[in-house]
Design goal:
Strand content: under 5%
CATH class of the largest domain: Mainly Alpha
Number of strands: 0
Radius of gyration: 18 Å
Number of helices: 7
Structural class: mainly alpha
CATH architecture of the largest domain: Orthogonal Bundle
Largest sheet: none
Shape: globular
Number of domains: 2
Order of helices and strands: HHHHHHH
């Protein structure tokens, strides 16, 4: 359904002659198609979401690198693409909700130190996939054990 929504949005962008949105949406669809061809599968919503998450992470990394290099023109392009790509991400959890999820995972797993971080991240990744930045989740876990 998410793939169909993206395709429908591409058609709307074409009709509206929104070149920026059309470019970003075509990049998303290209990445999805590449995954389908590489793995010879029809992607599910979870797999489409994983592709979109990867694109968001790539844009954020590019933005930080371009800012360091003083390339404001490229930062603006990446931020515009990021805004469009973020339309296909589920609503993000607040930090308080992430802390609650981490506390629950710690209680459920009996984790007691940083040695258990991998186990916690594995458990939380399934629960919070697409809903939270795993970097923030990692930081919350580290703060709990430090």
């Amino acid at each position: 359904m998410l793939k169909q929504r993206i395709t429908d949005d591409m058609k709307l962008a074409m009709k509206a002659k929104d070149k920026d949105a059309l470019k970003a949406i075509r990049m998303i669809l290209g990445a999805i198609k590449q995954k389908e061809v590489d793995e010879r599968i029809e992607v599910s919503d979870d797999q489409v979401l994983a592709v979109v998450q990867k694109m968001v992470k790539q844009r954020k990394d590019s933005i930080s690198q371009f800012k360091e290099a003083g390339r404001i023109d490229l930062v603006e392009v990446e931020e515009a693409e990021l805004a469009i790509i973020n339309n296909y991400m589920p609503a993000q959890l607040s930090e308080a909700e992430i802390v609650t999820a981490v506390d629950k995972a710690i209680a459920d797993s009996g984790a007691s130190s940083m040695a258990d971080m991998g186990k916690l991240m594995g458990a939380l990744k399934g629960v919070l996939a697409g809903k939270a930045d795993m970097g923030v989740v990692s930081a919350v876990i580290k703060s709990k054990f430090s």
